[in-house]
Amino acid sequence: MSRPLDGRVALVAGATRGAGRGSAVALGEAGATVYCTGRTTRERRSEYDRPETIEETAELVTAAGGVGIAVAVDHLEADEVRPLVERIDAESGRLDVLVNDIWGAEHLFEWDTPVWKHDLENGLRMLRLAIDTHLITSHLALPLLIREPGGLVVEMTDGTRDYNAGHYRVSTFYDLAKTAVIRLAFAQSEELGPHGCTAVALTPGWMRSEMMLENYGVTEANWRDGAATNPHFAAISESPRFVGRAVAALAADPDLHRHNGGSFSSGGLAREYGFTDLDGSRPDCWRYLVEVQDAGRQADPTGYR
Q1: Distance in angstroms (rounded) separating the CA atoms of residues 284 and 291
Q2: pTM metric for this prediction
Q3: Residue 2: pLDDT band by 50, 70, 90 thresholds?
Q4: Is 110 exposed, middle or buried (0-12, 13-18, 19+ CB in 10 A)?
């Protein structure tokens, strides 16, 4: 098996579940050492109150062929992020990939609720979790990443720049949170460019996160049964590993810098780099959403995976 990231060191901030876990494991598949951070451990759950833990993620990284290291960190607290970076420096002496995936705010947003009716405290908390965490982590981790050219920062979000520009996303708070992360990637690209490093925004498609599988009453083993509830989910959804493989493909690209400042999707990068999801397909969700679901057509993945 190819291990293009042997000797590379990654920090996946927010690796407990979902796209963070998928990214960490995919980086492990490619041979990287991955520091997996988050708030939920086997001893303590975060406010998100889900059972997945960073220890599980680190074990999955190691089982995939990398080295997984779990570190409990609240990325809203600079005093917790700073010793994390110092530890990475002391143990590994480098940082090649930073994935800013911190989120954990699904329990805070209210669908299709105008800003004057949305709970204000929850909305502002959502913005802190989505934006402040990323800024704090980048502020403290990037001095280590820019020591050598070739470093990669991935800002994980929901939606591409083009899609979000023309679509209202759930609520004002959610819309702002996910669009701001795309702009954050662009701003960091301007600052990282002179150091030979790259920042991009990346979105999964309709991702089969642990919570999404529960919502549809299915598992990763029988997810197509979700067609009974939503045929589009069964037609185009993707595993968290798919967007993770997009991260790994970017990190392994010797000509990575051509993507600096860009906004990408897992499906779009799969067409470019040739990686697949766990089932061997290449779901292209964001094109499907526009051309099939939003257009009111019947669910049909033909030409989209």
Answers
A1: 11
A2: 0.96
A3: confident
A4: middle
Task: Identify whether 228 is part of a domain.
Answer: no
Number of domains the chain is built from: 1
Q: What tokens were used for 144?
A: 């280590």
Separation CA 259–CA 261 (nearest Å): 6
Which tokens go with 239? 């595993």
In a domain, 18, yes or no: yes
Close Cβ partners of 84 (under 8 Å, ≥ 6 residues apart): 11, 35, 37, 71, 73, 140
- Contact assessment for residue 50 and residue 107, using Cβ atoms and an 8 Å cutoff: no
The single-letter DSSP state of residue 304 is T
- 3 state DSSP class of 134: helix
What are residue 304's phi and psi, to 5 degrees?
-120, -5
Specify the pLDDT at position 106: 86
Cα three-residue angle 108-74-148, rounded to 5 degrees: 120
Q: Give tens-digit pLDDT for 152-210.
A: 999 999 999 999 999 999 999 999 999 999 999 999 999 999 999 999 999 999 999 99
Q: What is the CATH number of the domain that holds 53?
A: 3.40.50.720
Domain ranges, residue 105: 9-218+240-285
Q: DSSP states of 104-123 as a string?
A: --TTT--TTB-TTTS-HHHH
287 membership: H or E segment, kind and range: helix 285-288
Would you state the pLDDT for residue 35? 99
CA distance 42 to 166: 41
Q: Is residue 301 part of a domain?
A: no
Other Cβ atoms within 10 Å of 2 Cβ, number = 9
Tell me whether residue 305 is in a domain: no
Q: Alpha-carbon distance 196 to 260, whole Å?
A: 10
